[in-house]
């Protein structure tokens, strides 16, 4: 009776055996218990597990739902399954639940703060990198800094001309850092060595819109070797070779 109770009424045991790759061993134990006790619940459980074998081996977390679907209709004639079904209700959601079992509001959380500038300067742009612990920030004095946010260390710093930075982008290989400024120039940097490679003025097209007076870079985009930039009121796009400027 203790063996029967331990096997048929213990959902966590069944789940653990399946999770650790011992499905056949679990079936063997159930068959052995049936041969000893001749309890019909054990035979039905073994047959049920064999019928859902491939589903639960692929997704062990579905064991609770699969058992409930098949055992609930027969529980009136196989009453010893009641405890197993209660175990499915109690422990099943621990392994397969679309609703959190505890509220995230119960967790004390305080966001970390990392000072990226002195008190009198403002951050105008923050650029993430492929390394999740590294970011690049631009300040309103035109300087650009690369930070390790985990160690809170300043890795590199670039001082640009006295102009406000409108945007920053990295090429996909992070070899070049391209910066647009308010004086209609693109600054192309060797990102790893923090050195200026070239400064390119973006000029408006003589075929621009009638009455256009804007001299602001409206946008730019990058490939691994070239930059494309355009002014707000221009119909033309300037193509820049990142290596040669």
Automatic annotation (TrEMBL):
Keywords: Repeat. It comes from Ommatotriton vittatus vittatus. It comes from the Eukaryota. The keyword Repeat applies. The keyword Transferase does not apply. InterPro entries: NACHT-WD_repeat, WD40/YVTN_repeat-like_dom_sf, WD40_repeat_dom_sf. PANTHER family: BETA TRANSDUCIN-RELATED PROTEIN, NACHT AND WD REPEAT DOMAIN-CONTAINING PROTEIN 2. This is Truncated KIAA1239 protein. Gene3D superfamilies: YVTN repeat-like/Quinoprotein amine dehydrogenase.
């Amino acid at each position: 009776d203790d063996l029967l109770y331990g096997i048929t009424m213990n959902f966590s045991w069944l789940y653990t055996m399946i999770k650790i790759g011992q499905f056949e061993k679990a079936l063997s134990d159930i068959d052995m218990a049936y041969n000893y006790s001749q309890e019909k619940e054990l035979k039905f459980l073994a047959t049920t597990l064999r019928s859902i074998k491939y589903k639960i081996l692929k997704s062990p977390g579905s064991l609770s739902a699969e058992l409930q679907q098949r055992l609930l209709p027969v529980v009136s004639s196989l009453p010893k399954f009641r405890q197993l079904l209660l175990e499915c209700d109690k422990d099943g959601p621990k392994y397969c639940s679309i609703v959190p079992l505890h509220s995230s509001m119960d967790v004390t959380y305080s966001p970390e703060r990392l000072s990226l500038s002195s008190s009198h300067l403002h951050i105008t742009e923050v650029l993430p990198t492929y390394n999740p612990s590294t970011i690049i920030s631009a300040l309103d004095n035109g300087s650009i800094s690369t930070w390790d946010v985990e160690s809170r260390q300043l890795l590199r710093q670039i001082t640009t001309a006295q102009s406000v930075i409108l945007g920053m982008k990295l090429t996909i290989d992070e070899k070049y850092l391209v910066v647009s400024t308010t004086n209609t120039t693109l600054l192309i940097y060797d990102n790893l060595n923090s050195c200026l490679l070239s400064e390119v003025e973006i000029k408006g097209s003589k075929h621009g819109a009638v009455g256009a007076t804007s001299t602001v870079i409206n946008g730019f985009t990058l490939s691994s070797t070239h930059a494309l930039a355009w002014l707000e009121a221009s119909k033309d796009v300037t193509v820049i070779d990142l290596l040669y400027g």
